[in-house]
Amino acid sequence: MNQLTIAIIFYIFAAVTVLSAAFVVFSKNIIYSAFSLLFTFFGVAALYVFLSADFIAVTQVVVYVGGILVLLLFGVMFTNTIMQTGLKADVLHLVPGILLTLALIAGMLFTFYTTGNWMPGVMQLNGSVVESIGLETMSRYMLPFEMVSIVLLVALLGAAYLARYDKAQKK
Amino acid sequence: MLTEQLLSIGVNHFLTISVILFALGMFAVMTRKNAIVILMGVELILNAANINFLTFSKYNGGMEGVMFSLFVIVLAAAEAAVALAIVINIFKTFKTVDVSSVDTLKE
Question: Smallest CA–CA separation between B9 and chain A, in Å?
Fold first, then answer.
């Protein structure tokens, strides 16, 4: 693929990511937000492929789209009855929020584009990183890997305990 | 000059997307009252951080950012599960997920 094709594909995925993220934030209907988050996650996964982190992209699709998004949808369905008109969320502090957001974007972009003079390293990641991830997980990142597995187990047990059906509370 | 910069995808392109995602997530956390939309904003912020990690990892040639983004994804899953359990409990107790009306700790 030549440079132009790559750039066009990149801009398409970037536009999908940013626009659907904006829709997540600005949409009044929570169901629309949740489904728009799906496109954001897929767009971010495509950007990960551009960063030659294919394993992370697959993990993103499996964990975020298959796990977190389903959890969020469950949350939406549990906490809003569809018939009820309370599906529309209210907004608080709109003007300070917009001002702070714009100031954040402008300040960080100004810093990145003017003072930040990024020098690409001599060695860049190329091709697939799956093999390197396997090697790193079993050598340098052994302890964090095991710790994160325990953290995940404890967190999921805690979540199941917190959200369980409480018979004593039910009258 | 400008078209050349636009065509060669570099660090700044990914950082720009990451900044926009982060700012949108911050906006959701700051202004929305529904707890679940706030969680979605947190997910956007985590994704922005991940894009930054992977960008610097790619253009630096190291594996640190890749490994760290993997751990970030795992912790995001744990965070989402616990946070939704808390939100469901809030809904059971207060019959709403409006975070500005959950104020019994306030006098």
Answer: 7
Which of A129, A114, A105 shows the shortest CA–CA distance to A51?
Answer: A129
Q: What is the pLDDT along chain A (171 residues), one digit of tens a residue?
A: 688 888 899 999 999 999 999 999 988 888 888 999 999 999 999 999 998 888 999 999 999 988 899 988 888 888 776 545 555 556 778 888 899 999 999 999 998 888 767 777 777 777 778 888 999 899 999 999 999 999 999 999 999 998 887 766 654
Q: CA B41 to CA A25: how far, in whole Å?
A: 7
Position A111 in a domain: no
- What CATH number is attached to the domain comprising A43? 1.20.120.1200
Chain A, nearest residue to B87 by Cα: A75
Please indicate if any CB of chain A lies within 8 Å of the CB of B84. yes
Measured between CB atoms, which of B74, B82, B97 is closest to A159? B82
Q: Cα separation of A88 and A27, whole Å?
A: 9
In a domain, A113, yes or no: no
